Structures are given as C-alpha cells and as structure tokens.
Amino acid sequence: MDAPVPGSGEAPEDPFALHNSASAVLDDHGRVVGWSERAQEHLGYPPDEVLGRRAVEFLVDSRDRETVLDAVAACERDRGWSGVLPVLHRSGRRVELGFRARAVIRADSAHEWFLVVAPAAEVLQWETDRSVLDGLFRRSPIGLSVHAPDLSILRINRALARFTQLPAAEIRSRRIGDFLIGPDLKTIETRLRRVLETGAPLIFTEQPCRLRSDPDHERVVSVSAFRMEDPSGGILGVTQLVEDVTDRYRARRRLALLNRASARIGTTLDLDRTTRELADVAVPDLADAVSVDLLESVARGDETAEEASGLVRRMAVHSVVAKALQVMYPAGEVFRFDPRTPHARCLAEQRSILEPVLLSSPGWYFEDQERRRRALDLGAHSLIVVPLTARGLLLGLLSLWRAERPEPFEEDDLTLAEEFAARAALCIDNARRYTQQHQAALTLQRSLLPQELPENSAVEVAHRYLPADPATGVGGDWFDVIPLSGARVALVVGDVVGHGLHAAATMGRLRTAVHTLAGLDYAPEEVLFHLDDLVNRLAEEQEPADGSSRGRQIVGATCLYAVYDPTSRRCTLARAGHLPPAVVTSDGAVSLPDLPEGPPLGLGGLPFESAELELAEGSLLALYTDGLVEARGLDLDEGLARLREALARPGRSLEETCTAVQDALLPDHPPDDVALLLARTRVLAPEQVASWELPAEPTAAARARHLTEATLAGWGLEELAFTAELVVSELVTNAYRYGGGTPVTLRLIRDRNLICEVSDSSSTAPHLRRARTTDEGGRGLFLVAQLTERWGTRYTRDGKTVWTEFPLVTAAEGCSVAMA
Fold it and tell me: What is the pTM of this model?
C-alpha cells in the first residue's frame, strides 16, 4: 500500500506495520539469517547475497561505522533500539532508514535480533503525527473531547479537564449533562447529534455555558466538532474542540454597548432626556435596574456644583423589575444620601464603588430599613455606583443594580459602567452648559489657536497672533503647523471676514477642517477646494429662514496652504485670495513668489492651482494675514516694502525677527486681526533617507525585508528590524497584489520616528478591518496598525503611498506587546 503524502491531510499508517515494512533477522554474531522481500526492495540485495554475511560488512559505510556501532551497543545494553541510521544500498548510494530492533531468545538460550525497517521519511512523518496527537491531549490550550455515537465521553485532554475541574480519568464514560446545566446542555447535544447524522462539521460556533460546579457564572465557549469515521466509513463518534472565549465575548459585548451608548446618549441638549437616555442604555444589558442622580446645583444648570454631601435630585430610573420602581426614589425627588451608604462615599471620594454582594455591605443604599427589606425581597444582590464627572467637575452619580441576573457585578462590569458614566457625563455637562452657551463659546474659541506648535524636523517656527478685540482675545485670523506623513509639514495662515465671536467660531470650524484635510494628505489645491465648499455651506447656514437680510452674517475667508518636504527641499503652495508669502534666503534676500492667485473661499466653483518652490536649507518662509501689512493705514505696496525691510536681516533668531516685524508694522492696538508665522526650513541629510524601486515580483517582499534589515543595521537601529520588516513585508505584499503589476517604491526615513513608505501606481485605498476567526486573510493591516504609532495613505498623481510611523525607542517594545 502506498504511503500517504506528507502534509496531504491523510492519516498515515504505521510505517513499521508488517504489511508495510521490511524485516531482517541477525544472529548473535551480527550475521544475516533472515531477509524479507521488502528488505530487498529497500536495499537492492537479494537473499542469496546477504544470508550468512555480517551486516556491518556490506550495509555500513566507513563514514557511518562509529554511529552504527553506538546504536549496536545501545541495542545490546537495552535489549532493543529504535531510530534512524544511514545504510548502503546495493548500488552504493547511502539511504536513511528507520529501525526497530528487538532481542529474540531461541530455545538453545542463544539470541537473535529481529529488525523492522522502513524509509526514514515515513518514520519521521509518523512520529510527527503521533507527537501532534500527543500534544492535542497533553499540551494543547484548547479543550478536546472525544465522544462515542451515544455522546458518552471516551476521552478528554488536559485543557478540558481543567475547564471541568475534574481529572481526565474520572470523566471517561460520563455524559455532557454531568457538567453542564440548563438549555446550554440541550444546545450542545443537539449540535453534536447533527454532526453525527449529517457529517457536516461544526466550526467556531459560540454558545453560553454554565457549569454545574459554578452555576452562577456564565461562560461563553467556541465549539468546533467533526465526525469520526473508520476506513470503511463506519461512524466511530464525534470529536469536539472547546475554547473558553468568555473574555473575548465580553469585550465584543462591551464594545457594542459603548457604540450603542455613543449613538443614543446626548442626542439633545436637554438635561432630562440625556439622563433618561443613559438609564435606558444601561438596562437590561448591564444591569437590571438603574438610577441617575445629579447634584441639585447641576440639575438647576448652575456653573458651580454644591459640595459632594449636598442634595441630589433623582433624574431618571429604569428597571426590568416593575416593582423596583416602587422601592426606588422616583424621578424628580430631591433627597440626601445617608453618609454610611456607598452612594455618599462615592460622592465624597469621587470614586467608583463596587459591592459584589450587598448582604456583606451593612450600610448600603437605604437608611430606611423598610426600603432595604423590600429591595432584598425583590432579589437585589449586587451594586455599582459610579461618579458622573466631566471636565474635572462632579455632576452626580450613576447607580446600577442586579436582581434577576444571578451573576454579581465584576471588575469588567465596573469598567464598562465607568465608560458609560464618562460619556454620559460629558453629554450632561454639555446640556448644563447650554444655559451659558455664549460664555462657553467664548472660552472654546480662545482655545482654538494652538498654544504650542508641534516640534518637527522640517522647519523651525515662531509666530505672533494679535486679535483686533483684546477683550475677548479671539478673532478670525489663524495659523497652524501640522505634521504630515513622510516627515513633511503643512504651514497654514488664514483670515475670516469680520472680527469677534462670529469670526472666531467660523475660524475654529475652518481650522478643524484644515486639520482633517491635512490628515487625509490632500494636495494644497484640494485642501482649498474643500475649504471653499465648507465656507459655502457655512454661508447657507447663516441665511435667515424668512429670506430677510436681518441677522445675516457675511461668511468669507482667505487662506494660504503650503506643504514643505525636507527630503526634497520642495515646497508646494496654493492660495485662496490670500497674500503670497515672503521667502528669505540665508543671505537676507527677500522675494514674494509669483503664485497663482485663487479666488477667496466662499465664491464656489472656481479652480485653485498650486506652485512648487525649491528652497535651500535655512530659507525663511513668512506667512501672514493682511492685517499685518495694512495696520497703519498704509497701502499694500508700502506695507509689503516695510515687511521686506524687517525680514532682510540675516543672523537673527526667529523670535527676534517676529519682534522686528511687529515693531516695524503694527501699532499698539491693530485695527484688524493679525497672524504671522515664520518657518525656517531644514533638510534631512541623505544618510537619513533610503529609497529603492522593487520590481513587481513575488520576491519583492523578501527583497524589501532584506533591504530594511540592512538599512536599519547601518543606522544603528537593529532593535527595530523585526517590527519594521513585518510592516514593510505586509505593505510591499499588498502593493504587489493590488498595484497593477507596476514597480513598487520602498522608502525609509530616520527622523524623530522611523518612517516606512511603500508607493505603487494603484489608487485603491487599503482598509483596516477586523478579520473573523474563519477568514484566511485580512489581518495584515490590523497587524500594521498594532505595531505602528500611526499609519495612513496619501495619493499622488502617479498612484498612492502607504506610510507608517513608529517611535525609535519604543517600537521594539510595542512589537512585543502587540505580538503577545
């Protein structure tokens, strides 16, 4: 019978079985006294050439003599031996065979050696399969049980024995019902019988599971099962694999609850409705009953909360137990918690309280003993109390109870309740602040401009911002320095029509939009196109419903958007009705580049164009708003001339240059908002950048890994090689699969972070998704996202670039955590 092909999935037969193996008999002097036909097939010697000869004389090569003699000595010592030895074929070639040798005692007290021989490859494959089977029952972390056709248990592995908390030997011949209770038993038995009847396997099917040994805790298991058959097709039983996925199931449930909470809590700025939404989300998925209480001052909408021991107002109650509403304080009730209760402690200490077993907490909830008795009669047995805090302010508390569900609250439930409370508290605080929206809007607008600009390797920056209304401190002008992928940076200056709160609010929306568009790596002209569309929509929102001009606000803006790349020294700029920047060389020469002048934002439908400049290292870019050059009543040309003069002094720091420009152009109280942004360019050294073009071949990923490893070694970043190779391999593989057969470009940049970029000619966007356990693929980008600090895609005229960043110091540690 032919041996199964290794790896084919067929169960191999024992290679030492008599109908498969060769055999020989040696006497106590090592002479061959028996020789089978299979031995002749394996070694080429007919019986008449070997019988009576010592085996070592014609079967052992001189190079292998010591190895064979060691095996002979072990065989004589232990009266048997098994292993693999090289022997000589009749043709002279060496072959490796697996041996089993056993001593045979004859009637005359002499002994002979019975040898069973099989090809080494078949022996090794069979031993491997035996090891796998042994591992499944002894070392596998996934539970395994083998059942007879009547579903009685024939054998289980150690993992499942730990799950049932019984020794494996005691479980044989028992039934599943000896361990599971309730409908869980019926479910699994029905599914296993279906597998026995149809032969269709059960694959990764999740179901609840309650053990008789621990009936108060529900577990969730993933079950796979297949039917066992003998070679003739007879049914031997069914095998099932059981994995405890309780933590994974609870994590999915928590995520689903949080998503539902995000969608359902805070749909309005009405305080009563927001608290009811919180109560409705928590019941019944997390608790059987819930109450939401706010400090009385918060319920009134006051800015300052009362002390934690003050009055509270019941805002919402919800329960699956109807009679519980008769025990709990009703909505609208104003009361004070007894200092002995967990609720009072929660308010006083502003921390969550978990009471898994209420009977062990003598002071819980009701100072009224009658209320306490009625709550116990309804089955209340577990409690969580979570403070509602937002922006550092205590607002109230959330109370959750369990009565019908037997499981007590656990730490995971407390974490989920805290997530609910955190999200709801923000919504509650927003609703409370609605009565002070004007002041809140002013406070928000003051925080719109960046307080500290991010450090980057592309440019050194300094700035000035002077609002026309110093009382509010806000205006319609803004500036930004936004780090982009590939060590690039975006420099932005804009000017919204008007002053004060309305202009600041519009500015904030535009600035947020710029950050979003920059994060999407749009080209400068595309950023302005989308901003133009946004300004149009803002203008439409300002139109009064009755069509009159009363209350109408003029919405319009100008903007200059530039992207500088320190690897190529190229700066791409586009402007929408904005003044061009000033470019200052290292020797102090000042120029105003002739950039295409696009229309101001808000006209709609008109195109924007970009221009590209090549800047020497140390060049100074000055971006500004018109309030800077028109502040003293000067015409535009005179103002620009003064700006040139103030900038044309090399050797000063950026802060000194900002001060010089301010002194030369601005009065003490400028009549218009002013924004000034200075950026001195830097250039990444050639040794910090490595780039290769890889042919679209199956070996591209392997080549990319090799280049990455060699480059990081040259940079002294060997500890990052494993992480970077994983990321580069995945990205290059995707580019090869979906890039249309064109070459792939790999670029590595050693900056503040290690940057990996893979470019191809395809415009198809990669998408991160969560692969199911049965999916064969789809985990690559998920792995990339886990191993890197940031990743994304930017599009070019020739295709796209997928980029990743990870910190130089912690990337290797992050890889270890992600792989764990």
Answer: 0.48
Yes or no: say if 647 and 661 are a contact pair by the CB < 8 Å rule.
yes
- As a residue count, the chain comes to 820
| Each residue's pLDDT tens digit, 238-277 | 888 888 887 787 778 778 887 887 788 878 777 888 888 8
Q: How far apart are the first and last CA of the chain?
A: 45
Backbone angles phi, psi at 133, to 5 degrees: -60, -40
C-beta of residue 409 within 8 angstroms of C-beta of residue 289: no
Residue 42 has pLDDT above 90, yes or no: no
Specify the DSSP element, H or E, that contains 345.
helix 342-349
Model confidence pLDDT, tens digit, residues 4-22: 444 444 545 666 665 567 8
Nearest CA-CA partner of 293 in 329, 259, 268: 329
Judge whether residue 46 has pLDDT over 60. Answer: yes
Q: What sign does the dihedral 442-445-449-454 (CA atoms) show?
A: positive
Judged on CB neighbours under 10 Å (0-12, 13-18, 19+), 367 is middle
| 280, two tokens | 């409705």
Angle between helices 271-282 and 246-264 (to 10 degrees): 160
Task: Give DSSP secondary structure letters for 211-240.
Answer: ETTEEEEEEEEEEEEEEEE-TT--EEEEEE
Q: Is the pLDDT of residue 545 over 90?
A: no
* One-letter-per-residue 3-state SS of 374-400: HHHHCCCCEEEEEEEEECCEEEEEEEE
Residue 663 CB coordination number (10 Å): 9
Q: Mind giving me the DSSP string for 740-770?
A: TT--EEEEEEESSEEEEEEEES--PPP----
CB contact set of 121 (below 8 Å; sequence gap of 6+): 6
Average pLDDT over the chain reads 81
